[in-house]
Amino acid sequence: MRLKAIKTGLRNALPLLYRFNPAGLRFALRVVIAALIAYGLARLLALPFGYWTVITAVIVMQGNIGGSLKAARERFIGTALGAGLGFLVTLIPVGPDYQWVRLALAIGASAYVVSLDARFRVAPITAIITLIVPQPGVSALAAALDRVVEILIGGAIGVLVALTVLPERAHRSLVKRIAALLRQLSGMLAIDMKGLHEPRDDAALSELIETSRDLIKTSVTLAEESSGERAARLTGGTAPDALVRTARRVRVNLIMIARATREPWPPEADRQLGAIFDNLGRSVAAHLSAQADALEAGRAIAPADGWEESFQRFEEGMAAFRANKENDALPTELMSRIFSLAFAVRQVKADLADLDDRIGEFAGTPRG
């Protein structure tokens, strides 16, 4: 039993040993190639602190081209800022016993800049290295310039390798994430609609909600990186931010539906509205899956036949439900859930129409 527990622990701690990940292997290859090129160039040019070139090439190498461009830009700007501040404080006349004053001023100034913009977070580290690390006889200005040049070389190597060695574009990764998100939302809706008639699987629903939240977070980062690719003219098409925002709105409304379907309806409500919402739920779930397929295929999408009819039947059913005076005896909490569900359904329809437009804008955009 103990051996089995150890094996399970290793499996949980080292999942890569139990799962083949082609994207991970491609990334590892890019990192190795970038590091070896940087190492060889540092040796060839006899750079004084050549290890910074290698480290930068590795740090800049991200999962996609957009991420590498962003990392290279931020590291170079932060390094230049920190090196500049490190050099400027050396101009302050202090005695040998008060070198800490320069160090404190450089760290404080660079840390303040980081508080304004986290993209410059390497600035304090560079300022410290500029003031402390230089070899005897090497001026602070020379140390600062050396570090900036080496970071620039390492960043350039990382970007070039990202562009040429099994390149992965943030745009393509974003499309995959949004498609996966839409399929997760389709599964969420299926569980929600089932919850109108019988106790639902809340554990499975919670897992889908958590997974969809992670996909949204990843998509926000990928959208930023994809925008960097567009700025560098590596990817065409429209800006991806609107696609992510619209997908997020759809998710929020589906969570509202999940809250409104947390308990089965009593027989009198289920008899009047159950079949209507079942039909509507199947239509929306199918459309979410179709949107995912269209996004991955790079084509526009139109609602399936019967789409508008299912919403028309929904509106007619809700109107009949409101007009039925016998429903005034239903519990207030139940009525609140029913009308909250109806509101969320209308919002979903509007957001899905917007999402159709966003997917249409992405149609034909090169996937990289």
Would you give an account of this structure?
By secondary structure, the chain is mostly helical. The chain has two domains: 22-164; 170-362, Methane Monooxygenase Hydroxylase, Chain G, domain 1, CATH 1.20.58. Helices cover 76% and strands 0% of the residues. The protein is built from 13 helices and no strands. Helix 11 (267-297) runs parallel beside helix 13 (332-362). The model has no long low-confidence stretch (mean pLDDT 85).
Helicity, in percent? over 70%
Annotation field: number of helices: 13
Largest sheet: none
N-to-C SSE series?
HHHHHHHHHHHHH
Strand content: under 5%
The total count of strands amounts to 0
Helix/strand structural class: mainly alpha
The overall pLDDT average reads: 85
Count of domain modules: 2
List the main descriptive attributes of the protein structure presented here.
368 residues, mainly alpha, Methane Monooxygenase Hydroxylase, Chain G, domain 1, 2 domains
Tell me briefly what this model is.
The chain is mostly helical and 368 residues long. The chain has 13 helices and no strands.
Helix-strand layout with pairing:
Blueprint: H1 2-13, H2 22-45, H3 51-60, H4 65-89, H5 99-116, H6 123-132, H7 140-164, H8 170-194, H9 202-231, H10 241-260, H11 267-297, H12 307-323, H13 332-362
Helix pairs in contact: 2-3, 2-7, 3-7, 4-5, 4-6, 4-7, 4-9, 5-6, 8-9, 8-10, 8-11, 9-10, 10-13, 11-12, 11-13
